[in-house]
Amino acid sequence: MADRFPSLDDFDAGQTEPSASPAQSDFLARERAALGDDANLFASSTDNTAPTPAQP
């Protein structure tokens, strides 16, 4: 996530916009990238299903 925000030096120089778009917009893809080989240890059958809204 640090690559999405300007460094403190850039911010002090006036650049306040993110320097690049995120490489992966999918949360699960980012988690798999962060966990590496251990990602499968945390996988479940419901990883790719959308939650249903709670009924009042």
From TrEMBL:
Q: Where in the cell is it found?
A: Cytoplasmic vesicle membrane; Membrane, Coated pit
Where is it found, in Gene Ontology cellular component terms? clathrin coat of coated pit; clathrin coat of trans-Golgi network vesicle
Query: What keywords sit in the KW lines?
Result: Coated pit, Cytoplasmic vesicle, Membrane
Source taxon at top rank? Eukaryota
What is the first-listed, main subcellular location in coarse terms?
membrane
GO MF terms here are: structural molecule activity
- Membrane topology designation: Peripheral membrane protein
What InterPro entries does the annotation carry?
Clathrin_L-chain
Q: Where is this region: Disordered?
A: 1-27
Q: Which GO terms describe its biological process?
A: intracellular protein transport; vesicle-mediated transport
Which function does this protein serve? Answer: Clathrin is the major protein of the polyhedral coat of coated pits and vesicles.
Q: Which family does it belong to?
A: Belongs to the clathrin light chain family.
Spell out the protein name for this chain: Clathrin light chain
Its organism's taxonomic lineage begins at:
Eukaryota, Fungi, Dikarya, Ascomycota, Pezizomycotina
